[in-house]
Amino acid sequence: MEKRSLLRVKGTFYKVNERGFTLIEMLIVLFIVTTIMAFIVPPLQQTMAERQLQYFLEQFSNDMLYAQQYAMSRKKTVTIIFHFDTCRYQVKEGGTFGKELLVRSFPSPFQFQLATLSPPLMYYPNGHINKAGTLLVAYGNKKYKIVFQLGKGRLYAQKL
Questions:
Q1: Nearest to 95 by CA among 76, 114, 118
Q2: Which terminus of the chain is more exposed, N or C, with fewer CB under 10 A?
Q3: What is an annotated GO biological process for this record, any one (predicted)?
């Protein structure tokens, strides 16, 4: 038989159940929740890694476009210097000792490899790049090829 008591609110009496949940009921609910989470968390982690890679590629593309636009608008050479050991790249006006325009760090799980691109990368005042080439980017099991095209100085990323 359930234990009940009366609760009085503004002159009206209500029946209140003081029984609560048992330990078995709470363990069953906890088991169900952990089972569901075991199926949801691994795909979520993979999605987060993919999103981080997409964000990096978009940011890198925007930074290279900024360097090109800066070179054309100021009529100056802009140099991009990669520091793969410290996981960052710099955008500088002029040469390697010029005014620093931008420094961008990237997470250490990213791995870079210069395939046909040779540093330093430079945008001339007319917006063209000094040499075409390919940069390989890997994050986990995902690999992309970033291609800098000769002429217009544009780049595109291609999944391998």
A1: 76
A2: N
A3: establishment of competence for transformation
